[in-house]
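Dear support,

Our group has been running a series of protein-ligand predictions, and this particular one with zinc ion is the one our PI (initials K.S.) wants archived with full inputs and outputs. We had some confusion internally about which version of the output was final, so please treat the block below as the authoritative record. The input we submitted was:
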Amino acid sequence: MFQEDRDELQFDWCMIGDIGEGRPTLGPETTVAIYRMMQFSLRDVLIKEYGVESADRLFFAAGKRAGIELYRNNAADCETFDKLVTKLQQLFLGLKVGIFRVEGANHKSGQYVFTMAEDLDCSGLPVSEETVCTFDEGLIAGVLYGFTGKEFSVREIDCWCSGERICRFEVKMLK
Ligand SMILES: [Zn+2]
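Confirmed final output from the archive:
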């Protein structure tokens, strides 16, 4: 599963495993602190080894792959954009990722503004004048790729860490 070299990404929902069987006592949930410990220590190593730009690119790519699989396994039955949004709101709330909203949608130009309140990645972090939710950017691009088959640029323009108290994502379909 993780010991073979590969030219194509292989992350698949089945890699998450049968949590019910594996954790009959502890169950499927953990804490935000442990999730952030994993994410930020990995990001720290990536930045040290490859630099900020490459680390961001790798984090975005991982988020995108995750988004594609999240869509395939949880939202592939959504026929319309509105149904997809409702499904994402339910999913992100149920999985305690954040409170997801659509602030703007222009289907003609393929431009959207999404927000995430109480975001799993950043809410409560020290303010640093940075936007940090690169994985989320990729996740949104992946879900939209799954839904439309098209590539999207996703840029976080506001973040808890930039002092906004909410994450805001500017989304554009690439021609
Ligand atoms: Zn953020």
